[in-house]
Sequence to fold (380 residues):
Amino acid sequence: MKPELTLHGQTLQLNRYPIRQNETLQAWDAADEYLINQVEDMKQKQALTLDTERPVLIINDSFGALACWFARQGQTVSVGDSYIARTASQHNLAANALPDIRFTDCLAPVPSQTRLVLLKLPKNNRLLVWQLTQLCAALPEDCVVIAAAKARDIHSSTLKLFEKHLGPTSTSLAVKKARLIFCQPDKNLAASLPETQRWEVPDYKLTLTNHANVFSGESLDIGARLLLEHIPQDPALKHIIDLGCGNGVIGLQAARLNPQAKVTCVDESYMAVASCRENADLNLTHPEQLEAKVDNCLESMANSDADLVLCNPPFHQQNTITDHIAWQMFCDAKQSLKQHGRLIVIGNRHLGYDGKLKRLFAKVHKIAQNPKFVVYQAEK
Fold:
């Protein structure tokens, strides 16, 4: 049975994406419900009037609950950094026979003359500051801004960021462990967008840039540092994939070590792919050697084409700890590899990736480890 969201007499059929058999994770949370109920109550009390001339702006919608609810409102725009969240929203709009809405990524300009902004708090404060700064510069002062999150994730420091970068701020009572933030845009606070993070990796003579939502934004994380030491240099490699590329550091080093190979860097984050593209232009003698693309793992990649896949899987989706992303990455890597092609994976020791890899690949062995991480090589 599909999960249902029922509010104010309206029922939506919602799924997370990718849809898996026996999927138990819910496609919305209490913060989504609180936002929807708050807007509907404001409309009933005539404290808020929406029309088709001014957009409703939804930011960081996880799986489309907000997009589906407000799709019939007229101009509805959904902004986010996740290709998976966008695809989930599109699937859920279609499943509910709702009109298409406009989707943009976080690097695109915010629509002017927006009437209502509904913002789900991102995990990353750097992304939050980026988004609040964007909003302050673009929103009219009569725009209603309501943010939502789990109550435990809204701190005094969170409210100070709203006050500093957008305008006067207040909060609601907690309902079902969720809380709302109300903010009134103040054009006097308008400022330039934060500069992109840039830092050096002296050991590899790399200069890296990171947009606001890219993992490890100010230094090389220890997992990537270990994986960098075990990237093969092999003239026989013709196509290398960096899966879950982030800022592209693994793909950049693979390209440098293997100038004869095409390197494809893939991530579901638009900001990660933009960072990767900028870093290729900044660091490679022949930047065209590297392609950076947004995808859900390797969903759109040709089968049996790659010689080598390099992968540092995430083990969470938004706030949910899960292994299904790693499992999908491993399955997609197997599909994308040529016969005898290799997958090199790094992961925290406690995640036990070797057991999963042995279910998919003929040969799996450990090639490196330190107290926190293990690097495995699997051969198709």
